[in-house]
Amino acid sequence: MSLMLTAELTIILLNVVIALLAYLSVYPTLAGNDFNKIALYDIGTSSIALAIVGYHYWGSDYVFDLLVTEVNWFWFTLATYSAIEIPLMLWYFKKHEVIVSK
Predict the structure, then answer these.
(1) Burial class, 76, CB count within 10 angstroms (exposed 0-12 / middle 13-18 / buried 19+)
(2) What are the pLDDT digits (tens) for 55-99?
(3) What is the pTM of this model?
(4) How many Cα atoms are found within 13 Å in the side-chain-facing hemisphere of 24?
């Protein structure tokens, strides 16, 4: 039996791994409960996901299915990363008592 991963599933799994590493390892170690640091590191982690996917799909005409519409690699990666990240972010903010405004 061969496990065949679609392009969409591969990107979703990459996003899950990056987001989990960020919220379970990187952010607690480097940012703690500092919202500005978390935001800065988050730009980096989401950029890593976009860079990896972009390396494979930049310039291609591959269309990704986003349930309600079809999009290119950039928007698919950004939308799925955001959908994965939001619940993790809410959990992290509550657990580490992150204050959004000072």
Answers:
(1) buried
(2) 999 999 999 999 899 999 999 999 999 999 999 999 999 999 998
(3) 0.90
(4) 6
